[in-house]
Amino acid sequence: MSQQLSLLTLAAIAAVASTACSEAVPPASEGGYIVEFITPNTLGKTCAVTNDFVHSGEVGYADSKEIRSLLKDTVRGAIIQCAVTPNGAGFTAAGILDNGAGHHLDFKIDSVTAGMPAQGTIGFRSAKTVNTYRSPSGKPCTFSFSAAQAPQLAAGRIWIDFKCSDVVDVSRDSACSIASGTVAMQNCDQ
Question: What total of structural domains would you count in the chain?
């Protein structure tokens, strides 16, 4: 009887252990972006980065025509976090892409629908900007889709272009702009 009880106990332990180990680990979030950061702005402020400055910052590589490479969360110290969740007929999207070496982009779009323009916020930092430049309150960035991108908006993923007439570093009273940018993320929370 005690041997049967021991076998039953071992079988129960094995069943619990196999259940705990069988849950699949979700894939790590991945993302990439490119930003064309320039000096003109509509606020009449000086861009403290440099004069005649055009700066392309990127993590991974995604533009409006192709996604060439995406950086995975935790690889080489990267922080890639995102969520693209259903919201009515569209989605709410937010993400952070930081390569751990000075390049950073964060964004938030409260409501986005495939093929339709949307408004949201951007934060951008690179080795050249040093500080983070953010879209100011009341001056949102514009997000839009190319023909190739619209089918890529779904729960857990987004690929979208953006531009910001103004991005501000309040610590230096500096304003610049983002002439164009693209962000692509996948394996996001949904």
Answer: 1
Per-residue pLDDT tens for 119-153?
A: 999 999 988 888 999 999 899 999 999 888 878 89
Cβ burial of 99 (10 Å; 0-12, 13-18, 19+) is: buried
pTM over 0.90: no
Q: Which residues have a Cβ under 8 Å from the Cβ of 150 and sit 6 or more positions away?
A: 114, 115
Distances (CA, A) of 182 to 24, 40, 79: 31, 19, 18
Q: Nearest-CA neighbor of 175 among 130, 120, 142, 135?
A: 135
Domain that holds residue 132: 27-186
* Structural domain contains residue 5: no
What sign for the dihedral angle of Cα 156, 27, 69, 39?
positive
